[in-house]
Fold this sequence. Notes:
The structure holds 2 protein chains of 2 kinds.
Chain A: E1 9-14, H1 18-27, E2 36-41, H2 49-57, E3 62-67, H3 78-95, E4 103-107, H4 113-130, H5 134-141
Parallel strand pairs in A: 1-2, 1-3, 3-4
Chain B: E1 20-25, H1 29-32, H2 37-44, E2 50-56, H3 62-75, E3 79-84, H4 87-100, E4 108-112, H5 114-118, H6 125-143, E5 152-155, E6 159-163, H7 167-178, E7 182-186, E8 201-202, E9 207-208, H8 209-222, E10 226-229, E11 232-240, E12 243-250, H9 258-263, H10 276-280, E13 284-286, E14 295-297, E15 299-300, E16 312-313, H11 323-328, E17 341-347, E18 349-352, E19 356-358, E20 375-377, H12 378-385, E21 406-413, H13 430-444, E22 449-454, H14 464-474, E23 477-480, E24 483-488, E25 494-500, E26 505-511, E27 513-518, E28 520-522, H15 524-533, E29 560-562, H16 572-592, E30 594-597, E31 602-604, H17 614-618, E32 624-628, E33 634-638, E34 658-660, H18 665-677
Amino acid sequence: MADEWKPKIIGIICNWCSYAGADGAGSARTQYPPDVRIVRVMCTGRIDTLFVLKAFADGADGVLVSGCHFGDCHYLAGNYKAAKRMFLVKSVMQNMGLEHKRFRMTFVSASEGAKWAVVINDVINTVKEIGPSPIAAERKRRGL
Amino acid sequence: MVYSGKKASESNEAPVEPRIGVFICHCGTNIAGSLDVIAVKEYALTLPHVVVSENYAYMCSTPGQNMIHDAIEKDHLTGIVVAACTPRLHEPTFRTATANGGLNPFRFEMANIRDQGSWVHMHDWDGGTEKAKDAVRIAVAKATMLEDLYPMAVPVEHRAMVIGAGVAGIQTSMDLAKAGIETYLIEKEPTIGGRMSQLDKTFPTLDCSQCILSPKMAEAGRMPGIKLYTLAEVEAVEGYIGAFDVTIRRHARGVLTPDEAAARGIVGGGCTGCGDCSQVCPVVRPNSWEFGMAPRKAIYIQHAQVVPLIYTIDFDACVKCGLCETACGTKKAIDLNMEDELFTIKVGTVILATGYETFPIEEKSEWGYKLYDNVISSLEFERLICASGPTIGHLIRPSDGETPKSVGFVLCAGSRDNTGIGKPYCSRFCCMYSLKHAHQVIEKIPGCRAYIFYMDIRSFGKAYEEFYYRIQEEGAKFIRGRVAQIQELPNKNLLVVAEDTLLGMPVEIEVDLVVLAAAVQPTAETEVVRRLFGVSCSADKWLLEAHPKLDPCGTTTAGVYLAGVCQGPKDIPDTVAQAEGAASAASIPIHSGQVELEPYYAQCVEKLCAGCGMCVGQCPYSALSMIVADDGRTVMTVTAAKCKGCGTCGGFCPGGAIRMQHFTSPQILAQIDAFFLGGEQ
C-alpha cells in the first residue's frame, strides 16, 4: 500500500553496545522495517531528557533509547544513570498527552544483532498500534 | 591521525557560513544494489549548506578519498559527510582524508547507510532510499555545526601488564620484555603455565607439552624485564591508555621468596623449593591441578616444573601446626600469619590472556560424567596418559585400575550443541586432541581399540589433515553421529549408544573407558576482568575483538588487547600467534611514547554554571571538581585527561552548562530537528 502510514521514530543509541549491535544486524543481513532513524551518542548517559522530549515536541511517533546491558557500560554506569533519568520522560509525556508506550529504553549488546532487529520490529509495531502522534497531527494542522 | 595544528583556544576567526560536501558510497552493490544512490546524492544538494554532492563506487578507495581531498580545496568546504558503511569501520579513514584535504579531521560526519541501511532493508528499495536520505540530512545537520577539535596527547608509561600466564600470557610477556618494555605478568594460580602445562603431548607433532613449555616458563620466570606476580588477581582499574592504574590483590602465599626474605632481613633465607616442609605436613588434600587424581599437602607445589619454584600454603586446609616452620629451619621461609597484599601498578597498555575452562559436562547427564567412574574428561585423560601424571603415564580405568582394552572418545561433548545446556559454537581443538588421544592409546596399549564418535572432523591447520589420515591408518574406528546416551554395565564397562549417520542406523558399542571432549568456555575470572576494563564480549561471553578481521588483538577500550583463548577457542599455534600480535599491538603506543585521545571531553561553560555540583557525583572517572572562578563564583571544572567523553555529566546538568565536545546539545538537537522538521531548501 503506497499511502500506508509510516511512523517516524528516532533511536538515540550508544556507540559501544547498541550501535555496534545494530551494525551486527547489518553484517548478518537481518531484515527489519526502515522506520527508525539513528542518532549516535557515546553513551546513553549523554542523553538529556530534553533530547527525548524535543523529539516528541517535534512530532516523533516514537523514541527509542538503547544502550549497553547493566554492568556492561563502556563508561561503568552511564546506562544506569540514563535509565533512572528516563523515568522523568514518562511523567512529562503524560502532561504532553502522549502514551508512555511511544518511549522505550532497551539494552542491546554489541553481539546482539538479532535482538536489535527484534527490538526495532517491536518498537515499530507498538507505535503502529497506537497510531500517529497527536503532536505531529497538530503541527501538520498548523502547517508547521 | 596526521592532522596537527593550533589549539582550540587559539582559534578565534569569525564564524563562516558552513559549506558541506556530501559523498555517497556505492560500496559496489552493497549499497547501490539496494537503494537509489543517485536519488540520495541529488537529494543532498537540496539541503541547506550543501554545496557539493558526489557518488562513487568505493569512497574508501584512494580515488574516493581523493574526491574528498580535491573537493575541500576546490569548493572551500567546512564540513564533510560521507554516507557509506559504519563509523566503527571507516571513520578513521575519512577523517584522515579530511585532514589531508586541509580541514580539521573532526569536521567529518558519517551517515551509516550500509550496515544500518542497505544491508537491513535489502528488499525495500523505496524505504531504504528514504531512510538513507534522512540519514544524510541528519548527518549534514551535525556537519554544519562541527568545529575544529584537537586530540589531546597523553604520555604512555613504558610498562605493560599481561593478565593470565598461560602460554598466551607467557609469550606476550616475553615478547614485550624482549622489546625493552617492563612487563607485569599477573597469574591467579601459584604457578604460570596455564592449561598447556597440563597437557601430555601436542598435536600434530606429538612433542611433549611440558618439554616445549617448561623452558619457556623458566625463561619467563627469570627474565629481568618480567615482573611476575602469581596468586594474584586484578582488584580495581582506573585510568586510560597510557596510564592505567591497576590494583592487584596478591593472595597470602605463606611462603617467602628469597627476595622477600632478604627484604625482611633474613640473610640467605627464603624458599628454595626443597620440599622439606611438604614432607612433614600432616594435612592431605586432592591436587586440583591433577583434577583430584593425586594428593597434595596443605603446603605444596602443583607439579614439579612450577615457576616460580616456591611452595604455597593452602590456608583453607592448613591447621597451623607449625611443623613446616620447624622443617624449613634457618631459611625461615614460612610465615603462617601472612596476609593478602594490595598494591597499584601504573602501566601504559594491558593484555588480557585469561584463557578458558571446560564446560561442566555433568550437566549433560545422559553421558554420565561424575555418575560413572569410567567416564572421564579429556583433560583428565591428559593427566592419566602423562608420564609425570598421577599414574606415571599408565592409562587406567578409575573404577578398578585395570588397563582399558577399548576406549570411546566422544567429540563435541557440549560443543555445537543448541539444546540450551551445551554451547552452540565449535570448541575448535577437540577434534585434533581426540585424534591424538586415539593415537596414544593405540600406541601405548597393544591391541586397545579406539572408537571416535564424531559429528565432523575439523582438521583445519597445517599438517592436521595428514595427522587425521595417520590416525585412520593406525586403526582408530570412526563413527559419525552424536552420542545419545552412555550406560554403565554391571562390570563397570560402558555402553555407548549413538546413531551412525553414515550407516543410517543406531549403534551400541561396549567400551572400558569413555573420554568426553568437553566444550570450552571463558573462565569465571574473565567476566570479572572484562568488566573492570570495560571490554565487550560476544554472545558466548568470549572477549570481543575490536574487529574480527582487521583488529583481532585490539578491543574497543583503547590500550587493552587480547591474546589466546579468552577471545575464542584456539589451538596452541593460533594462541601463540595471537599472543605475538597482541604484544606487538600493545608495544606500539608504548614505543610511540604518547597517544592521542579523541577530544570528546567535557567543558564547563562557566557563565551558565550555577555551581550546584550535582555533575561531580555523576562522573564515573572523578574528572569533575568544583573550583572558585576569577569572579568569586563556585563553578565546575574538568580535568580533560581524566574525562573519557561519555557525556553523563552533560546529559544531567540542569543548567545546560556542560559542553560535550563533538556531541554538544545543539549538535544533537539539530540532528533530531533535521529528522522531524526537515531541512530541505
